[in-house]
Amino acid sequence: MVACDVTNPFYGPDGAAYIFAQQKGTDPKMVQRLDEGMQSLAEVIKKTTGKDITNYPGAGAARGMGGGLLAFFNAELKPGTELLLKAIDFSEKIKGADLIITGEGKADRQTAMGKVPYRILKEAQKEHIPVIVLAGSIENLPELNKAGFKGIFSIAPGPITLEKAMEPEFAKENITRLVSQLYSVITSFG
Q1: The pTM is what?
Q2: Are 9 and 56 in contact (CB under 8 A)?
Q3: Which of 37, 120, 150, 162 pairs as cysteine with 130 (C-beta 3.0–4.6 A)?
Q4: Can you spell out the DSSP letters for 152-184?
Q5: Are 51 and 71 within 8 A, CB to CB?
Q6: Last residue of a domain, one of 21, 56, 79
Q7: Of 79, 103, 137, which marks where a domain is finished?
Q8: What is d(CA 78, CA 80) in angstroms, rounded to the nearest whole number?
């Protein structure tokens, strides 16, 4: 069994190259070439092993390693967060909660593709508990709101470098400020 934190397919617009290579700063032409290579590799894998990993959820995880493990080692891909939440009995622990606040370094379209905040959201929705995300940075806010999060807030007070944002004292100060503001709003409703 292999734990994956995302459900990306092997290639395509939501696949390994377009999501992970872009995140690492690869230029658009190279991303397209990488994606074409992933498609070719998937075809070779299908011809040699008989396994079609093309649209298997998680095959694009870890830049395509999920697909390789699936094809060559007969691995079963499972959402890592799902396994973790089950191990800690998360669904029982949240019963009776009024709100869940979770976090992520960068909240973006990947967040809604199975990362920790999304899995927490799915469990919380079963109990009708709203979920708020605190993130170092935010992209694709409408897509995240559409996923069902009740609020997504940036920890950063404004435009800053990643290096500055990661400084422990600066990060602590900003998280404290944001949580204080959220607490003020939440408690004002009784």
Answers
A1: 0.75
A2: yes
A3: 150
A4: EEESSSSS--HHHHT-HHHHHHHHHHHHHHHHH
A5: yes
A6: 79
A7: 79
A8: 6
Task: Name 2's Cβ contacts closer than 8 Å, sequence gap at least 6.
Answer: 58, 66, 69, 70, 75, 76, 77, 78
As a residue count, the chain comes to 190
**Local mean pLDDT, 10-residue blocks, the chain (190 residues):** 89 91 85 96 97 93 93 92 93 96 90 89 97 93 92 92 90 94 88
CA nearest to 133, candidates 106, 103, 174 = 103
Tokens standing for residue 64:
């395509």
**Domain count within the chain:** 2
Print the domain residue range for 96.
Answer: 92-187
Q: How far apart are CA 162 and CA 157, in angstroms?
A: 13
What SS3 class is residue 136?
strand
Residues 112, 57 share a domain: no
- Dihedral sign, CA of 76, 46, 63, 12? negative
* Residue 87 belongs to some domain of the structure: no
Same domain, residue pair 54 and 97: no
